[in-house]
Design brief:
The protein is mainly alpha-helical. The protein has four helices and no strands.
């Protein structure tokens, strides 16, 4: 499942980088939407790096995993409110982010956890 999280999160980041670059090339400036796509791509990279443990300041895979879930859901809500009518690339990315959320939930659920010990009273 961890591999699926990496691939799906990477795809989401790449798509948002592509959108930011194509928007910049079209408008020859950084407008609000271009900045949002760029920030979203960087946000996915940051959270994936944190999830993989590449950022030592952030600890705790569970918290970062649930943060990545929230990030993907917020991204989908923002897409639904901005992309009217929804584009094919938008649907593809929404499907990718949905699979990312499902993969994260499954990974967080099936990951081995340390056994609980109960001390005697």
């Amino acid at each position: 499942m961890r591999g699926a999280v990496i691939v799906l999160g990477g795809v989401a980041s790449i798509v948002h980088f592509y959108l930011a670059i194509s928007s910049f090339m079209t408008h020859q400036s950084i407008d609000a939407l271009t900045a949002l796509w760029l920030l979203n791509a960087v946000g996915y990279l940051f959270l994936l790096s944190s999830y993989l443990g590449a950022i030592p300041i952030l600890k705790g895979e569970d918290g970062i995993g649930f943060g990545l879930i929230a990030y993907a859901i917020i991204t989908m809500i923002a897409w639904w409110s901005i992309d009217r009518p929804p584009s094919t690339l938008g649907w593809f990315t929404a499907a990718d982010e949905t699979l990312l959320v499902i993969s994260l939930l499954v990974h967080l659920r099936i990951r081995p956890r340390p056994a609980r010990t109960y001390d005697s009273l």
